[in-house]
Design goal:
Helices cover 23% and strands 36% of the residues. The protein is α/β, with parallel strands linked by helices. It has a single domain, classed as 2,3-Dihydroxybiphenyl 1,2-Dioxygenase, domain 1.
Amino acid sequence: MAERYIFHLAFPVDNLDVSKQFYVRVLGADVGRENAEWLDILLWGHQITLHLRPDEVLSRERQGKRHFGVVLPWFEWQRLAEHVRAEGGAFLQEPEVLLADTSQEQAKFYLEDPSNNVIEIKAYRNFSTTLKQQSTDYNYKQA
């Protein structure tokens, strides 16, 4: 069995409880370790550490293009978009399909967590063609 690497991100938030609720309720994350200063969010097989650092939280305008995201299988992307709507989550950018009916067809939407961290959720109709990678390299399930 091939080794699996876990990607780790860490960034500031201005309220741990509110941030935890967003990641769990809206994105379906699990909570790992936590204390009064930080907590681990386990999301899509990866670890995000939220640090309580209100003075380091930037407005979206000051962040520029900074964001993080995930590429999901098409059906999971659709299901998550529906879940976000059902939870009353606000899209920073509504779900959209780009380059429809081409070999490069892709879908995406953007969310913003309570501390202005932007999250891009993508799907590729044909992962191998779009990213010029074999889907088995990443254990990616296609639609």
